Structures are given as structure tokens and as C-alpha cells.
Amino acid sequence: MARAVSTRRKITFTIIGWTVGLLIFFPVLWTILTSFKTELDAISIPPKWIFFDWTLENYATVQERSNYFRFMMNSVYLALGSTALGLIFAIPAAWAMAFSPTPRTKDVLLWMLSTKMLPAVGVLIPIYLIFRDWGLLDSRVGLIVVLFLINLPIMVWMLYTYFKEIPGEILEAARMDGASLSKEITHVLAPMSVPGIASTVLLSVILAWNEAFWTLNLTTSNAAPLTTFIASYSSPQGNFYAKLSAASTLAIAPILILGWFSQKQLVRGLTFGAVK
Amino acid sequence: MTVTVDAVEPVRHRAGVLDKARDILPKVVLAPSFALILFFVYGFILWTLYLSFTNSRILPVYELVGFGAYVNLWSQPNWYVALQNLAIFGSLYIFFCIAIGLTLAILLDQRIRGEGVLRPIFLYPMALSFVVTGTAWKWFLNPGLGLQRTMQQWGWESFRFDWLTSTDMAIYTVVIAGVWQASGFVMAMFLAGLRGIDSEIIKAAEIDGASTFSIYRRIIIPLLRPAFLSAVIVLAHMAIKSYDLVIALTGGGPGNATELPSTFMYSYTFTRSQMAVGSASAVMMLMGISAIIIPYLYSELRERER
User: Fold this and answer.
1) Domains and CATH numbers, chain B
2) Owning domain of residue A71
3) Spatial contact of B268 and B281, defined as CB atoms under 8 Å apart
4) What ipTM score was computed for the predicted complex, to two decimals?
5) What are phi and psi of B75, to 5 degrees?
6) Do A121 and B266 touch (CB under 8 A)?
């Protein structure tokens, strides 16, 4: 709904909007600030906002004590591995549904998306049993496969909404001109679908990076990503806030940066294409 | 005339062969994803269902014994705690997320400055894992640190905010964190709805002298009905699935005060070695979510067939 709004009202609403924005962002900001404090400053009362001795020691300690880097690499492997596997399956599937729709296509899509709504606990026990029998517990490969499977419906859906926007006339024109299937794909489809694929990659990486249920339940140390690490690190009592904040900051930094530079894709991805 | 036909003919012939490939190929490339989702979701759900009718404890047993696990499940006081918590959490979570999300969407729709920057900020809580953002929340809610101590230090000596450590109130801290996490997401859904409303209708109402308030109450909010419906569905299923909120914030405690069905399922299956009871609780959750999404999907399908 686009409406003319008076300047005065606009300023008022802008101030309110930014205040709310700051409030919502506060926990994240606080985590980042705390990560640069000493443990003593982190729990000092009254809280120190920005006037404290800035230090990087938490980052060093976390790395030293728990080999933080390994957990981060696990997060990277899991996010990229499951995304790559997902693309291999999702691109052809989404392509098929977008460009050769049948009367059932919408039903299939809706059905796929509905499976994403089912609770993970419904399939936890079988997966746990298979993992245990096949020695896949706490292995990267196993977790990559699980993350790939749980994000596959979303990836297909996302890609579909993007592919759907590619005008069919262009493909028809290419076919009229006698383009072969491979030419059609490399010269027409591929260039036009890059933005959609990029957005889908972003969404899938974010979802895999954040995944807590499966990583907590299927890993302990070897294949454990940052989410598992932070969950195990956090004891709410004790003098660990600054270190925990350092670990948390590193875990959210990639998403904050990715999200900032691809705001549109982030919004669209998280709302499953409802907001373009 | 003849010349043109000659020129086109070979192309058309080639297209004929390709058309056939184009007919089959879509089905072939769709099949793997379809089969994987079918097997992974429904196959494994059937497996869980089967286990819920057995006597499995630490190891799976495949001998059917009937409804024993369900009887056991419904005699666990913990299960009632989990259900009660889900009812409290779910209803407050849905209500506040929608109230705040709608307010934020209306606010952002006033063409405020820097909307493009605010939108991702509102969505960040959803984009970041709660296991990670929970760190700040634990500090904030901790009575010995955070809000309570800060307020007392500022001179409000009697200020109390110790919900996190209180058996009766801990579940409300989960609500607060959950609302923080999902409000921006709901905002984005409503904003899409608001932007989709035909501005002509609003203009007509304005010309007729309707106040801004009554335009929202009588025209805009009724027109957002589909957005309300999807928001409720999405939030309801997220509430039932909630896991990391509790794990990161309270770990189910103090005691079992913030137990939710998903943490119940986990602890019965793995910590207490009651796999059949865990399976039975998973089946109950599946039924709960199905009761929400099946009517929704059905109405979506019927809508399109009209």
C-alpha cells in the first residue's frame, strides 16, 4: 500500500522504526561488545557499554582451549557440502516443475514444502539408529546428508519461485531458433538463473549454518559445528560470558555479513519468497 | 513460399525429437528429489510409528506389543508439563508475534527512511541461530547480572526480574525470546500483504473522509486475512517444533519447568532410554502438526481449483 505521508509523520515514524530496530538488534550488539571485554567487565554492574578495556584475549583463549577453528571448519564443511549436494538435486527438479508444469506440479510443490513443516523428532529415531549402525554418528558425511535432506524441499521451492520468473517466451524463442537442449541450458537458462541460484545458496548456507537440532543430536566432537560447540560451552553461571560471547560473535559474523550484503535475498529466502 | 518451408523443415524435425526428450526429462530429473523426500520423511515416520507400538528401550525391538508406550506416555506427569508449557508458550508466542509483527509492518509501510536497512535488522533474529543469540539473552535474563541487577543499580531497589530461575515463570522467558526471534519474520509476511493491497481502495476511502484508524480497521486489516492465516500456521508449527529456544535458554529447567514436547521426546529417547515412549511422543507431535497443516493445505488446494 503506497500512500503519501506528511514529512512530520515520516520523521516520527522513522525515529520509532529505528528505535525498535536498535532494540531488536541489541542482543546481537551486546554479544559482540561483550566478546571484547575481560570476564570481569563482562559481568560488571552497572554494565559497561563501550568504555572498557577492549581486548582480543577471549578470541585467543577460546581458540587455545577448545580449538575453535576446527568447529568453525566443520560448520563451513556442513554448510557448503549440504548446499552443493542440494543444488545437484534441486536445480533439475525445480527446472522441471517451472518449465514443464503439469496439472500436478503445484500439488507436488505444496507437498514438498509441507514436509518441511513436520517436526524433526518424527524422523530422529530412525536416522539415529541408521547412523549408529553404519558408524555415521559424529561424522561430517552423515551430517551433510541429513542437512541436505532436510533443506531439499526448501531449496526446490526457492529455485522454483525464481525459475518461474524467467519468461517462457525467451525459451520458446530459443527453441524457434533451433537451439539444442544443451545450448538452451548453457546460453539462455544458466545466465538467467544465476541470481535465483545464488539466493538459494545463501538460504541453504544460512539454514545449515544455524542448524541446531540435528547437529546437537548427531555430533559430539569430531564433526561438531559451532552450534554444538556453543551449546556445550554455555554454562549460564560462571565466568564465561566474555569467552562465550567471543565464540558466539564468530558464529554469527558470517551471517551478519552475508545478510547485510544480500538483504533482498535474505528477506526473500527467510520468507520463502513471500517478500520479493 | 516453398523456399521458406524448406528452410524451416529440418529445424522442426530436430525439435520433434527434442520435444520428446523435453517430455520425459522433467519427470526423470524430478524423480530423485521426489523419491528422497518421500522416503526420508514418510518412510522414517512410518518407522517411528512402528517403534511406538513396540517395547523398545535403549535398543530398538521390533516385536509389536500394542499401545503400551502410549499408555505409558499419557501417564507421565512430565508429558503433561510439556503439553501445558506448549499451550502457554504457543498461544502467547502466536499472539505477540502477530501483534508486534503487524505493528512493525504498518510502521515500515509508512515509507520511513532506511527501510531497506531496517528490514534485514528485523529479520536478523530469525537468520541467526538461537543457540548463539541465546548467549546475550542468558546474560540479560540472569537475575544476578542483566536487567534485574542493572535496574537495582540505577536505584530501583525493589525491581525483580528473576523469571529465568523461577519454576513458575521460566516458560515466559522462552516466550520473550521466541517473540524476539520471530516478530521480524512475521513483520515481513505482513509487509508483503500490505504492499499487495490496491492503493486505489485506500484512496477511495480517503476521499470519502475515512480516518487513518478506520481505514486500517475496516479495510486494510480485513484484506490481510490471508497473511494472518499463513502467519498463524507458520507460527503454530514453529511453536510445536521449538527446540533450540529451550535448549539454549533453560535446558528444560529449572527442574522440568520449561519442558516442551520436543525436549521431552529427546530426553525420553536418549537420556532415559525409553525409545518406545519417545517414539509415541513424536507420533503425538506429528499428529498435532498434521492437524494444523492438513486443513491448511486442503484449503489451499481447494482455493486453486476454484
Assistant:
1) 73-305 (1.10.3720.10)
2) 66-232
3) yes
4) 0.83
5) -110, 5
6) yes
